[in-house]
């Protein structure tokens, strides 16, 4: 009898350890991936320290891509939240850790010198690895072009990564991000050269892109930071945060095409 009681108790305990029995035969049609965006970063340091910071501290990311060789490391499962983006916003969504996949690229970012900032370029093999990873993630989560953002897009008041040397155009050529038609931009730029839109117009167009930007019509520091983030992505040759004809043309064409 004691043996029988012990056996029953062990069976009950084993059942409790496994948790409740759940029937998974029925799956709802009304569902989608929790992942809405992919956020790109640079690490500001080398591989060894990047791995240590992203695995041993409070900061983390789903993936890290080395520079030489361009090894892809998965540090956090995609179904879990990584702590990579902080205070952020895009298209009204805030605190984007919960709805994004974070990818860190080993890159030192910039160094301050007597002639200003010197930025570190991204090795072609590292970008090749990134593109392959992005295509895989976007297919699995059914993400549309335009779902890939820079840290500077979602936190333009405090972040500049992945920086002006990040090759957004290569991602566009791979079909991963929208890119404005060059001829359409040239035509619009000629029109805007003699009649530059107001600051309020720029703010409205940046908001249509998805940026969190003031709407008061004044060219304050916050607005300039958002303009600079947009320029860094689509016109990296000059990202001074000043409203000009080319930036206006880029915004209008992008918002019209996409």
TrEMBL record:
Please state the Enzyme Commission number of this protein.
3.5.1.28
Family the UniProt entry places it in = Belongs to the N-acetylmuramoyl-L-alanine amidase 2 family.
Signal peptide limits: 1-19
Q: What is this protein called?
A: N-acetylmuramoyl-L-alanine amidase
Where do the N-acetylmuramoyl-L-alanine amidase domain residues begin and end? Answer: 23-163
Pfam families recorded for this chain? Amidase_2 (PF01510), PG_binding_1 (PF01471)
- The top EC class is hydrolase
Q: What is the lineage of its organism?
A: Bacteria, Pseudomonadati, Pseudomonadota, Gammaproteobacteria, Pseudomonadales
